[in-house]
Design brief:
This protein has 498 residues and is of the alpha+beta class. The chain is built from 5 helices and 30 strands. It has helices at 28-54, 100-108, 111-121, 128-133, 438-443; strands spanning 60-64, 84-85, 91-93, 136-140, 144-152, 155-163, 168-171, 177-180, 185-186, 188-189, 196-198, 218-219, 224-225, 247-248, 256-262, 270-276, 291-302, 305-314, 328-329, 351-352, 355-356, 359-360, 374-377, 389-392, 409-413, 419-424, 448-454, 457-463, 469-475, 478-485. Strands 23-24-25-26-30-29-28-27 form an 8-stranded antiparallel beta sheet, with no helix packed on it. Strands 13, 14, 15, 16, 17, 18 and 19 form a 7-stranded mixed beta sheet that branches. It has a 5-stranded mixed beta sheet with strand order 10-5-6-1-11. It is globular and about 95 Å long. Residues 1-19, 49-56 and 83-95 have low confidence and may be disordered.
Length: 498
Amino acid sequence: MTTQFPPGPPTGAYPPAGYPPPRQRITTTTAALAAIAAILVVALVATLLYVFVLRDTTTIARYEAADFTTTTPFTDPALIDDTLTTAAGETIAEAGTCNPTKLKTQLAANPSAAAAWAQIIGIKTTEINTYIDTLHSETITTPLQVTNHDYESGQPRQLQSVLDTGTAVLVDNKGIPRVRCACGNPLKPAKNSATDITGAPQGFDLNNVATKPAKDDYTKPVPVLGRDKFDTSGWATGFGTAKPGGFSIASTASSTVGDITWESWGGDTAIGLGRTQDRENPQYPDEQRSDMWVLAYDLGWCNGVWTYRSIFRSRDRAGLNPTGDDGTEICNGSRAAPSNEPVTLGPDSLLTFGGAGGVYVGDPGSKIPNTYVKKNVITTPGMYPYGTIFYDFRENTFDAQTLTSPNVAEVWVNEEGIILQFRWYGTDRGIKIGSPAADIEKAYADAERRTCRLGLTPTPYFVDKAGRAVLFIISDNKVRGIRAIEPSTGVDPHCPFE
């Protein structure tokens, strides 16, 4: 018998009982296709899970008209209730603009809301008033999307809102909205652009909504004419208000204009027509009361206030064309925009141009933090007016040998609550009390050098581009005193603290 090798399968039913089924043949191509299909299925499932479950691509914003009031505000409306008018009865500020004082008062009355408000802004609760003082009121003129925060059941709730034209907001010095004044809600820049909106009037177009404030998205605050008491002699009157009915530069008839009617106000320039206050005496025909045109110009910041910083007078309207130094400076203060930098003023702060630790000459005294070691309030008339306050940030010592106070760190606030000057021990450029006078010129070579008179002695001070100044008192070629001051004006003026 011939034996097969290898042996063939047994005859009969196939496969017979007890035999495993034959193995199927799987090609490499079939396995690869199956693996790819499995991967594609997994990827599709993951994508659908991300799109429909894990990621919400829709950003819905709440429409808010200028008079919108949420049912879950941080505060009651912090707005000016009434219009402000001039002596002539003209409106200069509309009801509905921001009232920072109300905002501070209402937050102080609700500590829980104040704590949540401060946390959103990124400050301490004790810093709220100081922070609000760095903001200024503006009105939105183009619909703007922001990240808003309601206060609901004792907890903040974040949402996207579209603030429409006319909405009153407090903004920082970069023009970023920080508070919606109708409800006290803190604001931040928008996140994703809104894809849908609720509560908007019919026809409202989301395509016209900005997510970043443009430079011209706001109207500036109502400007005032100059700075009150800009002249340290104290003779100037009628300044620091909007559309004054009259003013006097030096309390003399020839420098006084009264009965002013303003034909424009709020633009880059303002023009008014008044009457001179000279004597009505036929013997002095050149000093008769007559028409006097006034041009207010150089619009900008003055000690944190939106101000016309110069004026020019002319007997006829066509002559309102000042050139060079023809006009009169009526600011004589810091021209820097309101500061929004953190306040860090303390014993170890160094003096910069105009101040220290984020606090400057011209700021309100309320901006001073409680890091001082002593506060001295003048309660009896004398060398300083009643109500003047001195804040010492170090224990002041006097060196009888050098006649200096090498450790001084003092902020002087005048009777009107405005920071007048700093007396300090050292600057951020390495100059300190006792330094050689020659070091000053090297340290401040990039700044404008001016002088004022301390007694009969010319005293140098240096001014940066923002108009802030630091002054050095020198004796025997040594630095004997350092101060942050308001820059002086005029030819060879007295130092402002003399």
